[in-house]
């Protein structure tokens, strides 16, 4: 192999090594959200979702069951348990986070149909709530 060809291979290898880190083809997984301490509260509007998503996979990988007491939250870790209080009527329910959402800006949580029903929020669709992280 001549010196000129060897040099060309070295340059090609160097260019490939420099370009490779910026050419990742697999997406990097986002880090899991940090757990929040029990007793942490948040207030704002809540909505609910049901039949349209029943049986589909949630962000946690489990199938969505509109009859289970679950909810979607944008940042809390999956499995986090919350007490949700409807600030209009005082009704409360405990839910488990198993999905991401809501996708509508300004809303703090999306409840399953069963959770919304327990809170008396099905007819209204959107209600003011306070959520508290449980131990």
Report a brief summary of the structure.
This protein is of the alpha/beta class and 135 residues long. The chain has two helices and six strands; from the N terminus they run αβββββαβ.
* Secondary structure tally: strands: 6
Would you identify the regions where 5 or more consecutive residues have pLDDT less than 50? 18-28
The termini sit apart by 70 Å
Which strand-content bin applies to the residues? 25-35%
Helix content: 10-25%
CATH superfamily of the domain at 41-133: RlpA-like domain
Mean pLDDT: 87
Q: Rg, please?
A: 24 Å
Work out the helix count.
2
Structural class: alpha/beta
Question: What is the second-level CATH architecture of the domain at 41-133?
Answer: Beta Barrel
SSE pattern: HEEEEEHE
Shape: elongated
What strand order characterises the main sheet? Answer: 1-5-2-4-3-6
- Tell me the major beta sheet: 6 strands, mixed, barrel
Q: What is the CATH T-level topology of the domain at 41-133? A: Barwin-like endoglucanases
If you had to describe this structure to a student in words, what would you say it looks like?
Helix content is 18%, strand content 27%. By secondary structure, it is an alpha/beta fold. The chain has a domain at 41-133: Barwin-like endoglucanases. The chain has a 6-stranded mixed beta barrel. Strand 3 (81-86) and strand 4 form a beta hairpin. The model is unreliable at 18-28 (pLDDT under 50).
List keywords for this structure.
135 residues, Barwin-like endoglucanases, 2 helices, 6 strands, elongated
